Amino acid sequence: MSKEQEYSPLMAEDGETEPSLSSPQRKGIVARCTSKLTRGVLGVIIAIETIALIVALVTLSTKRHRPTCFVTPTPQQVLYSPALDAIEHEVRVYNVGFTGDLSPFQIPSSVKLDQMWSDLYNFGISRITKEEAAQLPNKTHAIPGDPGHYIAELDVFHNLHCLNKVRMALDPDYYPEWRISTTNNWIEEQKNATEHVHHCIDWIRQSIMCAADTSVIVWQWKNWANASLVQGNVAHTCRKFDKIQDWAKDRMLLKTFDPTVRIEDDIVVPIFHSDMS
């Protein structure tokens, strides 16, 4: 604000004749009005900035009470995965899983069934490039004896491994090594199996909650039952599993990974943890 605006003459009081437009007093009145208008605009700007500052401080204060490891992505945000380019979608209808609509995996425990499950994920440990590893949201380790490559696993294959172990625990007569303790029967020698299966059940729970399939199961009227019955054979939007398998097979870790060898590198990535419970 200039001194001319700040110290302009006072406006004429009531009853005084308004000066002509060409008089110095009129110029003073215009300057004073301009000064008041400028101060008003500045006042509004300052008020807005003050409100914004208060909102920011309240927001920061609220966030202090949240775990620092928790990250809330926007609906459009997708964490990097080296397999993102392999994702394709298709519409699939699940097998309901009851008589008349069983899947090929619903056969008695056998060598054949074991092989079918193994074929789903036995190539799941991958070797990725350093460039890919540097983009991961969590740091992974370099592969000893394989410069420029890092070990990784797509979580879908770990999920399948876990589900397979739960399946085996459900048939302890065929898989005695996976017999687990029950509420009233603690089996000390099966401690590892029991803990492993409990880990797997909860990991699968978290994975289901994470994926949160929003496909809609419906009820339909059935004349033979004279009732509306739930229908499981509905359409789902799925990622093409064979495309993800192909990606993993092309990057399958063929050599034995030695976890006792420490390799330092210059990759620095943020480490994220989930607080889903």
Automatic annotation (TrEMBL):
Protein name, per record: Tat pathway signal sequence
Signal peptide (from-to): none
Native species: Mycena indigotica
Positions of region (Disordered): 1-25
Keywords: Membrane, Transmembrane, Transmembrane helix
Pfam families hit by this protein: UstYa
Residues annotated as transmembrane: 41-60
Family the UniProt entry places it in: Belongs to the ustYa family.
Domain of life of the source: Eukaryota
Any single GO BP term: mycotoxin biosynthetic process
Pathway note: Mycotoxin biosynthesis
